[in-house]
Design goal:
Chain lengths: 174, 156
Amino acid sequence: MGTRSFLAFLGVCAVIALLAFGLLSKGSATIEVGDKAPDKVLPALEGGGRGSLAEYRGSWVLVNLWASWCEPCRDEAPALEDFYRANRDRDFVVLGINVQDNSEDARAFVGEFRPTYPQLRSVGDERSEAYGSTGVPENFLVNPRGKLALIQRGPVDEQFLREYVDPLIDGGRG
Amino acid sequence: MRRALAVALMGLLAFGLAAAPQALAAQPQVQISDVEDEVMCPVCGTLLELADSPQARREKALVRRLIDEGKSKEEVKDELVVQYGDDVLAVPGGSGFDLSAYLVPAIALLIAVVSLAFGVWRWRRDGDSRSGPPSSGTPDDGDAARLDADIARYDL
């Protein structure tokens, strides 16, 4: 191989490496039941302060990714609140994470549905990508050891929570 | 009478001067379309001006509100970055991997210019060596023999 061919080969390799890096660095994570739940300290949606999943270690946590513009998120909000109220004495909490939204619309949503469970805010797609999310809403049940016990890529309702989430919480420490 | 007219004119002038800045301030300085073709709908992955998803509609409403508040285009874009992250900008940022969007074309252009200049230089050098003075003297024996053979073949 001549010097010129070798340089051309190096150039092509550099372009391919650049494209691959770009694609991989923008890609979403892939997570499965049994994996450690992604976590990051995030600002609270209202009232200042910060929070993270780690604060609830030892409890069951239903992480709910939502956005104010998403109709299914509106549909599931009352069921989530009811389930939280009914189970918060069983070491269970719902942790709302607002994604792909602007803070004013998000606060208006909270003002409308008045969830009593904690709400954090993630700017843009950062948390969605960490959870390998493809849309909103998505729900992830995290066991007391911080591992994913259930993944629901879509909205939940009262029946789903009763049939799939309740037995896991009932099962104890996961 | 003339004095009263002068006072009235001065009053009108003073009112006009006072009202002008307010009128200018009320006028939106930025058109929505100026912003929408420079930012993305992050959920759709397209320019905001082309998007009509629920998220895009809320983003457009936010842009409209910020413009109504008198924000400049850069201020509107800065607020969108605060709300939706860097991905909301249609033009890549100037740091990290996004920097390659500017560096790669610049480097490619530089390589192309250097290659072209080198090619032209070699072409001119080769041309100069080919267009040198013709060799003087008689053909060697081989050339003479071939010339004789060609003349004989064509019966010249």
